[in-house]
Structures are given as structure tokens and as C-alpha cells.
Amino acid sequence: MSGYVRETEAPELPAPAFVKGPVHWIRENLFPNWWNSILTLVSLYIGYLLFSSVIDFALISAVFTGDSGKSCIRESGGHVGACWPFIWAKFDQFIYGRYPLAERWRVDVVYLVGMAALIPALMPALPFKKWNVLFLLIVYPVMTFFLLVGGSFGLEPVETSLWGGLLVTLVVAVTGIVASLPIGIILALGRRSSMPTARFVSIIFIEFWRGVPLITVLFMSSVMFPLLLPEGVNFDKLLRALVGVALFSAAYMAEVVRGGLQAIPRGQYEGAQALGLSYWKMMGLIVLPQALKLVIPGIVNTFIGLFKDTTLVMIIGLFDLLGIVQLNFTDPKWISPVTSHTGYLFAAAIFWMFCFSMSRYSIYMENRLHTGHKR
Asked: pTM value?
């Protein structure tokens, strides 16, 4: 009787479907027991009721070709879905506003360079991270200013009153997000400071801006602030709105960061002091990295709220994405019963895409930094 001994390692077989994979995930998360199975089926049915009409409007009954609003009106008077030709015809305005056609390449350069620099900055494993971040925080804003505003290097000047659409939305949101985080951190440190003056100033600033609605801040920056300036001195309306949004968001960000600072055990402060670290080294190397890691959901939640609040700039005459969409509803050529519904659906999809991306990246960073839970 002879035996057989394998000299090479057998190929690794995939795990059974009931142990790993989509089937396992569905069984573990959606149908682990009879009670959760019922909840899953009820949720699926409610989701079907909610989204079936949206899918029917956006895809099944939608109109995809045409050159006017008449294309989206059926002579029989039957149900008509989304009027997508309206979006195709006005797409340039939704992206650029009334930015001069011959100069829109400057906006395209800003978009492309921003994406090319942001994507590597969000990927932790890539090299040259420090230089990438410095480019985004220092070089890119200066380049964006000169490209969009013009008036230098042979570029035609373009007034901010001609800006609009997604351009204004991103300018307001990105400026507010980038400015609010460092200002919020300084305010949070000031509110917890042992120096009475710094603590008093920080508290007054935070409570003032948190107690005033953003719409009031925008009105004050647009209408009242110019009245307080000396005669002949004025600032651009968009610049005033950017400052107001940044300060407003910084006050909320300060409270989010302060919550993270309060969650750090006292022993961390005492250990840093025992090592002889100065206040700023203690905060920069020991306390703040831990505090910011704990409040990632709150920080991103503030960013998402700020991104959606950019629609309020419409009330001071700045036409962001939603504002430019609503402005085009008045075009007689595209008047139809579904024009406004289609425009709002398009704007909602764009806002959802940006907000969902920020949310998913937040979850990715939480898991990578091991903030205590995994999703």
C-alpha cells in the first residue's frame, strides 16, 4: 500500500458564500432573525413607495430630447416626466453662471487643478503629502484668485456679479470650510484658556455668531456693512459674503472642537507638561490630534451644513447653483409644468453628490484612525 505526500501547497480556495461575501453580509445585517427580517422587508417596501415615483419621473417617463419647453408637454395631457433638455440647454449657466464665454477656460483650469491637487491630498498613502497640502492652502487660492478675477497677467477682469452656478457654490463653500477650521480651533483654545481676556473674547465671539441666523449675517454684510464704511470705500459683495460665512461657520466649529478637547483625559495634559513641552507643542503634538480625531463626525457635519447653506447667498443677489437654476425657470422658451421639478431634481442631485462624498470620506477617516468603532 503506497501513500501520497503533496510537495507543493494546495491552491487557496475562496470562502463559502455563507461565511464571507455579499450573501453572508445580507444574512448577518438584514435577515439575522425573524424580527429584523420583518423590519428589512417593511423598509424595502417603504423605500419602493418613496423612490419608485422619483425613478419614474427622472427616467421612465422623462423627456430626453427637445429644443424648448413644448417638447416636455404632451398634447394628450398625460403624465410627463423630467424635462432633461432644459438641463442640457442651461448646463453651461449652471456650471459657470454668466461668466464670459471666452474666459470660461479659466474656470475649467481652476476646477481641474483643484481636483488634481485634492484627490492625492485625500489619499494617505501617497508621497509628498506635505507639499501637496501646502499647494492647496497657499498656491492654489492665489492662483484661483488671479484666474477668476483677472486684471493681471494679461487676463480680462471679470466682475464677481457675473459669477454664478456651481462656481459660486464651490467658492463660498470651500472658502468657508478652509477658513472655519483653523479659526474654530483658535476660538476653542481661547475659550478654554486660563487667560481671562482670551477666554472672554472667544466666548463673546462664539455666542454672538451662534445667536445670529446666517441669513441675517448675509444681509448685514451686503446691506448694513457698506453703510459703516467711510465714503468712497467699498468691498466686493462676494468678498463680504465669504467673510460672513467663514466667521459664522467658525463659531460652530469652535464648539465642535471644544467638545473634543474636553473629551481628552487630564492625564494627557499632565504627561505633556511633565515632558517639558510648551503650551503650543502640547496642543499641536499631543492634545489636538486626539481631539480632532474624536470629533471627525461633528467637523464633517458642520462642513456639510455649510455646503448646503451656500444657497442662502441668493437673497443678497449672488446666484449660486440653486439660484441660477431658479433664475432660468423664468425663460419663456422653457416654460412647462415640469421645468421647475427637473431643475430642483438636478440641483438636489448635485448637492447630494458633494455631501455624500464628504460623509463617506469622513467614515473612511474614522475607520483608518480607529476612533472606537467601525462601519
From this structure: 0.84
